[in-house]
Amino acid sequence: MIKAADLPDLLPVFPLPRALLLPRARLPLHIFEPRYLAMLEDALKTPHRMIGMVQPCPMDEALHHIGCAGRVTQFSETEDGRYMITLSGISRFEIDAEVDGFQPYRRCRVKWGGFQRDLSSAEKDEGFDRKPFLGLLERYFDAQELDTDWVSLKEADNEMLINSLAMLLDFNTEDKQALLEAPSLAQRREILATLLEFSLLGGDAEDRMQ
After folding, report:
1. Sign of the C-alpha dihedral, residues 155, 160, 162, 165?
2. Backbone angles phi, psi at 119, to 5 degrees
3. How far apart are CA 123 and CA 24, in angstroms?
Protein backbone atom coordinates (compact mmCIF):
# COMPACT_ATOMS: atom_id res chain seq x y z
CA MET A 1 0.00 0.00 0.00
CA ILE A 2 1.30 3.45 -0.93
CA LYS A 3 1.92 5.77 2.02
CA ALA A 4 1.44 9.54 2.11
CA ALA A 5 5.23 10.00 2.16
CA ASP A 6 5.47 8.15 -1.17
CA LEU A 7 3.14 10.52 -3.03
CA PRO A 8 4.98 12.73 -5.53
CA ASP A 9 4.71 16.51 -5.65
CA LEU A 10 4.72 16.51 -9.45
CA LEU A 11 2.39 14.41 -11.60
CA PRO A 12 1.90 13.89 -15.32
CA VAL A 13 -1.78 14.49 -15.97
CA PHE A 14 -4.09 12.92 -18.51
CA PRO A 15 -6.98 15.36 -19.20
CA LEU A 16 -9.86 13.22 -20.39
CA PRO A 17 -13.47 14.49 -20.37
CA ARG A 18 -15.97 12.34 -18.45
CA ALA A 19 -13.29 9.79 -17.53
CA LEU A 20 -13.38 9.29 -13.78
CA LEU A 21 -10.95 7.45 -11.54
CA LEU A 22 -11.63 6.93 -7.83
CA PRO A 23 -9.46 5.54 -5.03
CA ARG A 24 -9.26 1.72 -4.94
CA ALA A 25 -11.06 1.50 -8.31
CA ARG A 26 -9.56 0.52 -11.66
CA LEU A 27 -9.71 2.38 -14.95
CA PRO A 28 -8.74 0.72 -18.25
CA LEU A 29 -7.24 3.10 -20.81
CA HIS A 30 -6.21 2.84 -24.44
CA ILE A 31 -3.07 4.92 -25.04
CA PHE A 32 -2.19 5.76 -28.63
CA GLU A 33 -1.46 9.51 -29.02
CA PRO A 34 2.31 10.16 -29.17
CA ARG A 35 2.24 12.65 -26.27
CA TYR A 36 0.48 10.17 -24.00
CA LEU A 37 2.74 7.32 -25.10
CA ALA A 38 5.61 9.55 -23.96
CA MET A 39 3.76 10.23 -20.70
CA LEU A 40 3.30 6.52 -20.07
CA GLU A 41 6.95 5.73 -20.83
CA ASP A 42 8.09 8.44 -18.41
CA ALA A 43 5.65 7.32 -15.70
CA LEU A 44 6.90 3.74 -15.92
CA LYS A 45 10.44 4.96 -15.18
CA THR A 46 9.37 6.38 -11.80
CA PRO A 47 9.15 4.35 -8.55
CA HIS A 48 5.46 5.20 -8.10
CA ARG A 49 4.33 4.74 -11.77
CA MET A 50 1.54 7.25 -11.19
CA ILE A 51 -0.53 9.30 -13.62
CA GLY A 52 -3.10 11.92 -12.63
CA MET A 53 -6.53 11.67 -14.23
CA VAL A 54 -8.23 15.06 -14.39
CA GLN A 55 -11.17 16.39 -16.32
CA PRO A 56 -10.71 19.45 -18.53
CA CYS A 57 -13.30 22.19 -18.14
CA PRO A 58 -15.94 21.95 -20.88
CA MET A 59 -15.49 25.49 -22.27
CA ASP A 60 -11.68 25.76 -22.46
CA GLU A 61 -8.41 23.91 -21.86
CA ALA A 62 -8.29 24.70 -18.14
CA LEU A 63 -8.25 21.74 -15.77
CA HIS A 64 -10.61 21.08 -12.90
CA HIS A 65 -8.74 21.63 -9.67
CA ILE A 66 -9.38 18.13 -8.26
CA GLY A 67 -8.23 14.91 -9.92
CA CYS A 68 -7.30 11.39 -8.90
CA ALA A 69 -3.93 9.70 -9.27
CA GLY A 70 -3.66 6.11 -10.41
CA ARG A 71 -0.77 3.68 -10.44
CA VAL A 72 -0.09 1.75 -13.65
CA THR A 73 -0.71 -1.84 -12.56
CA GLN A 74 -1.24 -3.53 -15.92
CA PHE A 75 -0.10 -2.74 -19.42
CA SER A 76 0.28 -4.53 -22.71
CA GLU A 77 1.56 -3.36 -26.07
CA THR A 78 -0.16 -3.99 -29.38
CA GLU A 79 1.71 -4.80 -32.57
CA ASP A 80 1.24 -1.25 -33.86
CA GLY A 81 2.74 0.39 -30.75
CA ARG A 82 -0.38 1.25 -28.77
CA TYR A 83 -0.82 0.36 -25.10
CA MET A 84 -3.70 -1.03 -23.12
CA ILE A 85 -3.18 -0.07 -19.49
CA THR A 86 -5.00 -0.23 -16.17
CA LEU A 87 -4.75 2.52 -13.60
CA SER A 88 -5.48 1.56 -10.01
CA GLY A 89 -6.82 4.57 -8.10
CA ILE A 90 -4.58 5.73 -5.25
CA SER A 91 -5.69 9.15 -4.03
CA ARG A 92 -7.36 12.34 -5.12
CA PHE A 93 -5.24 15.48 -5.32
CA GLU A 94 -5.60 19.22 -5.71
CA ILE A 95 -3.74 20.97 -8.50
CA ASP A 96 -1.47 23.67 -7.14
CA ALA A 97 -0.05 24.83 -10.48
CA GLU A 98 0.58 23.59 -13.98
CA VAL A 99 4.30 23.23 -14.75
CA ASP A 100 5.88 24.19 -18.05
CA GLY A 101 8.54 21.95 -19.54
CA PHE A 102 9.84 20.22 -22.63
CA GLN A 103 7.54 17.22 -22.26
CA PRO A 104 4.73 16.97 -24.85
CA TYR A 105 2.18 16.18 -22.12
CA ARG A 106 0.90 18.31 -19.24
CA ARG A 107 2.32 18.15 -15.73
CA CYS A 108 1.06 19.65 -12.50
CA ARG A 109 2.40 20.37 -9.07
CA VAL A 110 -0.16 18.83 -6.72
CA LYS A 111 -1.22 18.79 -3.07
CA TRP A 112 -2.59 15.72 -1.29
CA GLY A 113 -3.87 17.33 1.89
CA GLY A 114 -7.51 16.64 2.73
CA PHE A 115 -7.58 13.25 1.01
CA GLN A 116 -5.86 11.09 3.64
CA ARG A 117 -8.89 8.77 3.77
CA ASP A 118 -8.18 7.75 0.16
CA LEU A 119 -5.06 5.88 1.26
CA SER A 120 -6.84 3.74 3.85
CA SER A 121 -8.89 0.59 3.45
CA ALA A 122 -12.30 0.42 1.76
CA GLU A 123 -14.70 3.13 2.92
CA LYS A 124 -17.99 2.20 4.59
CA ASP A 125 -21.46 3.62 4.07
CA GLU A 126 -23.40 2.48 7.10
CA GLY A 127 -26.60 4.28 6.08
CA PHE A 128 -26.82 2.68 2.65
CA ASP A 129 -30.19 1.02 2.04
CA ARG A 130 -29.38 -1.11 -1.00
CA LYS A 131 -32.89 -2.30 -1.95
CA PRO A 132 -34.42 1.08 -2.91
CA PHE A 133 -31.15 2.18 -4.51
CA LEU A 134 -30.99 -0.93 -6.69
CA GLY A 135 -34.65 -0.39 -7.59
CA LEU A 136 -33.82 3.15 -8.71
CA LEU A 137 -30.84 1.84 -10.66
CA GLU A 138 -32.97 -0.78 -12.39
CA ARG A 139 -35.45 1.88 -13.52
CA TYR A 140 -32.58 3.98 -14.86
CA PHE A 141 -31.09 1.04 -16.76
CA ASP A 142 -34.49 0.21 -18.23
CA ALA A 143 -35.05 3.83 -19.30
CA GLN A 144 -31.59 3.99 -20.89
CA GLU A 145 -32.00 0.51 -22.42
CA LEU A 146 -28.79 -0.66 -20.76
CA ASP A 147 -27.82 -4.21 -19.89
CA THR A 148 -25.73 -5.20 -16.89
CA ASP A 149 -24.69 -8.16 -14.79
CA TRP A 150 -27.17 -7.77 -11.94
CA VAL A 151 -25.73 -10.71 -10.00
CA SER A 152 -22.31 -9.03 -9.84
CA LEU A 153 -23.86 -5.68 -8.97
CA LYS A 154 -25.83 -7.13 -6.09
CA GLU A 155 -22.79 -9.01 -4.77
CA ALA A 156 -20.44 -6.01 -4.94
CA ASP A 157 -19.59 -4.31 -1.65
CA ASN A 158 -20.90 -0.81 -1.10
CA GLU A 159 -17.75 1.05 -2.14
CA MET A 160 -17.20 -0.98 -5.29
CA LEU A 161 -20.85 -0.62 -6.29
CA ILE A 162 -21.05 3.15 -5.81
CA ASN A 163 -17.64 3.96 -7.24
CA SER A 164 -18.04 1.67 -10.25
CA LEU A 165 -21.37 3.27 -11.12
CA ALA A 166 -19.93 6.77 -10.66
CA MET A 167 -17.14 5.91 -13.09
CA LEU A 168 -19.17 4.01 -15.68
CA LEU A 169 -22.50 5.80 -16.01
CA ASP A 170 -22.83 8.43 -18.73
CA PHE A 171 -23.12 11.70 -16.84
CA ASN A 172 -21.76 15.03 -18.01
CA THR A 173 -18.39 16.44 -16.96
CA GLU A 174 -19.66 18.61 -14.11
CA ASP A 175 -21.75 15.76 -12.69
CA LYS A 176 -18.73 13.47 -12.85
CA GLN A 177 -16.67 16.11 -11.08
CA ALA A 178 -19.23 16.37 -8.30
CA LEU A 179 -19.04 12.59 -7.81
CA LEU A 180 -15.23 12.76 -7.68
CA GLU A 181 -15.15 15.58 -5.16
CA ALA A 182 -17.74 14.08 -2.77
CA PRO A 183 -16.11 14.12 0.70
CA SER A 184 -17.40 10.66 1.65
CA LEU A 185 -18.80 7.50 0.09
CA ALA A 186 -22.22 8.27 1.60
CA GLN A 187 -22.27 11.71 -0.04
CA ARG A 188 -21.16 10.22 -3.36
CA ARG A 189 -24.02 7.73 -3.13
CA GLU A 190 -26.48 10.56 -2.41
CA ILE A 191 -25.23 12.56 -5.42
CA LEU A 192 -25.43 9.46 -7.60
CA ALA A 193 -29.02 8.79 -6.51
CA THR A 194 -29.94 12.42 -7.25
CA LEU A 195 -28.45 12.17 -10.75
CA LEU A 196 -30.34 8.95 -11.43
CA GLU A 197 -33.61 10.48 -10.22
CA PHE A 198 -33.19 13.64 -12.30
CA SER A 199 -32.36 11.58 -15.35
CA LEU A 200 -35.56 9.59 -14.90
CA LEU A 201 -37.53 12.81 -14.45
CA GLY A 202 -35.92 14.41 -17.50
CA GLY A 203 -34.35 17.19 -15.40
CA ASP A 204 -32.03 19.71 -17.04
CA ALA A 205 -28.33 19.26 -16.39
CA GLU A 206 -28.13 22.78 -14.93
CA ASP A 207 -30.63 21.88 -12.24
CA ARG A 208 -29.17 18.54 -11.19
CA MET A 209 -26.78 19.61 -8.49
CA GLN A 210 -28.73 22.65 -7.21
Report:
1. negative
2. -90, -5
3. 10
The one-letter code for the residue type at 68 is C
> 89 - beta bridge partners?
70
Nearest residue to 209 via CA among 182, 183, 169 = 182
Nearest C-alpha neighbor of 21 from the set 59, 64, 62: 64
Three-state SS string across 89-120, please? EEEEEEEEEEECCCCCCEEEEEECCCCHHHHC
C-alpha to C-alpha distance for 186 and 183, rounded to whole angstroms:
9
pLDDT tens for 158-209 read 999 999 999 999 999 999 999 999 999 999 999 999 999 999 988 544 444 4
The three-class DSSP label of residue 176 is helix
Give pLDDT tens digits for 35-48.
999 999 999 999 99
Phi-psi region at 10: left, alpha or beta (left = phi > 0; alpha = psi -120 to 50): beta
Residues 6+ apart with CB under 8 A from 21: 27, 53, 68, 70, 87, 89, 167
pTM of the model: 0.90
Sign of CA dihedral 130, 162, 17, 175: positive
Q: Taking CA 110 as the corner, what is the angle to CA 104 and CA 113, rounded to the nearest 5 degrees?
A: 165
Q: Are 65 and 115 in contact (CB under 8 A)?
A: no
Q: What is the pLDDT of residues 6-32, one digit of tens each?
A: 899 999 999 998 899 999 999 999 999
